[in-house]
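Hi support team,

I submitted a single chain yesterday and got back a structure, but I'm not sure I'm reading the token output correctly. Could someone confirm the output below corresponds to the sequence I sent? I've pasted both exactly as they appear in my results page.

Thanks,
R.
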Amino acid sequence: MVELDVTEAQIIKSEAVEVDKDDPQWAQFFDEEEMESYVQAELCQCIETVEPIAIHPYWLRNRELGAMEELKKELGKFSQTLNGYLLGFTRPQQVQVPGKQNRYPQPFLFYTFKVTRYIYKPAVGQKLRGCLSQLGKNAGTCVVFGKFTATVFPATPDELTTWAIGDVIPFVLDSFDNLRKTVILRGTSTPPPPEAPPTKKKKSKRKNIEIESSTLVVPKEEQPTPKKKRKKVTSE
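Hi R., thanks for writing in. Yes, this is the structure output for that exact sequence:
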């Protein structure tokens, strides 16, 4: 068995810890462009705050990822201070607040961060889209924003027969129940408008004449067939 010095063992341990800190599996678990599309559609709000966040000493070398680990626990839950549900957040940035102490006693360390959160506030009449996960006799269950469940009723009875698991169902929010850990949504589907029959384009006579002239096959002039010469029959 090879014995290592204390310093070498500490170096190997610190390198292993740095790999875990710099490349966590959950560090990029949501798409920022997707969140911005929700903001443009007025489905959620982008709110920036500067606040102290308690992180575990394990994340002392990479405090921003430590703050992300704590913010991850708030996903999909109701925030009383922001009056909404957390859909996602950007990577927090540590800031130095003058005149305040950023570090407190163990076991957790408090540091001040600038955080951008995407908050969803449900409202009756919102136009949402959900992925169908279950089908019932009268309605279907959809997953909205990848976090919440919604009971969607079809606009017509025949529409339910056309649904399949995995389909994206657009619907209008009719009612909801605010809970501390999640929100329960209920709505009615909005089927797409029927496709208009294709209109036939009228062709002008000039185009028809051009097409006919281009496709017209002109027969070659018939040449007269040469007459065969008769052989003279000589009498003996």
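A quick pointer for reading it: Confidence is low (pLDDT under 50) at residues 1-29, 208-213. Let us know if anything else looks off.

Best,
Support desk
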